[in-house]
Design brief:
- The chain is globular and about 70 Å long.
- The protein starts with a helix and ends in a 16-residue tail after the last helix.
- Strands 1-2-10-7-8-9 form a 6-stranded mixed β-sheet, with helices on both faces. It has a 4-stranded parallel β-sheet with strand order 5-4-3-6, with helices on both faces.
- With 426 residues, it is an alpha/beta fold.
- Helix content is 45%, strand content 12%.
């Protein structure tokens, strides 16, 4: 019987050792893995639509990176709730206006816009308890006005004229904000004179509703967003977009390039990045019809067409929308730029189709021009550099013009390229 007892003892000992090893391994493994994994795997829900704006992904544009030998990265601003980079600006403008008292709670925000800023304002204004009235040129893609109306904004389309003209869309929007303020003041004064509460509708008396149709019937006051001159635009990118790019690249960045509409994006991002590292070069890409190329490269605001009296009535002599200004704005003067490149409408059209075929990126016109700029910079710097640009908005807002075959054919812009030969890359 001794051998049986010995064998049984050995089995028990082996089992005890095995159990001990298993327990040790479990606790060792659990401790090791939990110490290396994030302590909070669940991201907290963002607080409403406003909190969902920003912190957009930075992606590698594979086709352009492989073709140039550079790392070309795009900030996916089209993924913001309102569909564009202008969401950041809209929030910053409204927040600062409410804080300063320039915009009264329940007031109406007015803006003159070629589309994207207006859509962003109409998207976020209700989140702040405000309304939105937009004045846009009547030659912008019709779907932009349709989107604005669907968002609840009131839309006024005017013919495109020079910024010096009283009926320029920006000047009309500014004037209407003043009229809304005047009406609010009259309503307040009438209420004080009567010494009693008036039977009001949307803050106005029924008589005022009849006298002032549409957005002017909202008597809490008006605020002109003034995206071109309001430095909240610049601050939105200096405090938000720029730091995000720096963090997402780990500071390993050689160049940044973007077009200018108001100038806020290129100014805010360029100033922030160059303050972080003077080695980062920042560039402007300029569509036809803008004198900013000579302003950046030679210090003089000038375009040949304007000097020769050939300039069209539309200050934006390009099919790209929202970029190509031909004046200096307060936002643009904040930019820190090392140079500028020119882009053409044909290059923007071809680039949009190339990236759709090769990367699945459905680009808006300014988005496409920025990518033209990224390739220009890559060719200038040579292989091995990291270049970032802004992917402003998607092609969904450009179907009736930038993606309309008949419209493009009228201007000789029908896309024909099969590769990047339009950028002199084989």
């Amino acid at each position: 019987m001794a051998p049986v007892r010995t064998t049984f003892a050995i089995v028990v000992a082996i089992a005890a050792i095995s159990i001990s090893m298993a327990v040790f391994s479990y606790f060792f493994f659990f401790k090791t893995t939990t110490s290396t994994l994030p302590t909070n795997n669940k991201k907290k829900p963002r607080n409403g639509v406003v909190d969902a704006i920003g912190n957009t992904p930075l992606i590698r544009i594979n086709s352009l990176s492989e073709a140039t030998g550079c790392e070309i990265l795009g900030k996916c601003e089209f993924l913001n709730p309102g569909g564009s980079v202008k969401d950041r600006v809209a929030v910053k403008i409204i927040e600062e206006a409410l804080e300063s008292g320039d915009l009264a709670p329940g007031g109406v925000v007015t803006e003159g816009s070629a589309g994207s800023t207006a859509i962003s304002l109409a998207t976020v204004a209700p989140a702040f308890g405000c309304k939105c009235h937009v004045v846009i040129p009547d030659d912008v893609a019709i779907e932009k006005s349709q989107i604005l109306e669907a968002l609840g904004a009131t839309v006024e389309r005017v013919r495109p004229v020079s910024i010096t003209h009283t009926h320029h869309y920006v000047n009309v929007a500014r004037r209407q904000a003043l009229e809304a303020d005047e009406l609010a003041a009259k309503t307040k004064k009438a209420s004080q004179v009567d010494g009693k509460d008036l039977d009001q509708m949307n803050g106005c008396t029924p008589d005022q509703q009849k006298e002032y149709p549409g957005f002017l019937s909202h008597c809490s006051g008006g605020f002109f967003a003034d995206q071109f001159e309001n430095l909240a635009n610049f601050r939105a990118h200096y405090e938000g977009t720029g730091p995000e790019i720096w963090e997402q690249t780990g500071g390993s960045l050689d160049a940044f390039v973007a077009a200018a509409g108001t100038g806020g994006t290129v100014a805010g991002v360029s100033k922030f990045l160059q303050e972080k590292s003077s080695k980062i070069k920042c560039f402007l890409i300029i569509p036809p019809g803008s004198g900013l190329f000579h302003k950046v490269t030679r210090g003089v605001m000038y375009i040949k067409e304007e000097a020769e009296g050939q300039r069209l009535k539309n200050p934006f002599d390009t099919i790209t929308e929202g970029i190509g200004i031909n004046r200096l704005t307060q936002n643009f003067t904040m930019a820190k730029l090392d140079g500028a490149f020119r882009g053409t409408d044909k290059e923007a059209v071809e680039m949009s189709r190339f990236l759709l075929r090769n990367d699945g990126l459905f680009l808006g016109s300014s988005f496409a021009m920025n990518c033209v700029g990224a390739v220009r910079v890559a060719k200038a710097l040579g292989p091995g550099h990291t270049i970032t640009t802004i992917l402003c908005d998607s092609g969904m807002r450009h179907l009736s013009k930038f993606y309309d075959a008949k419209y493009l054919s009228q201007y000789g812009l029908t896309p024909t390229a099969t590769g990047l030969e339009f950028m002199s890359i084989k």
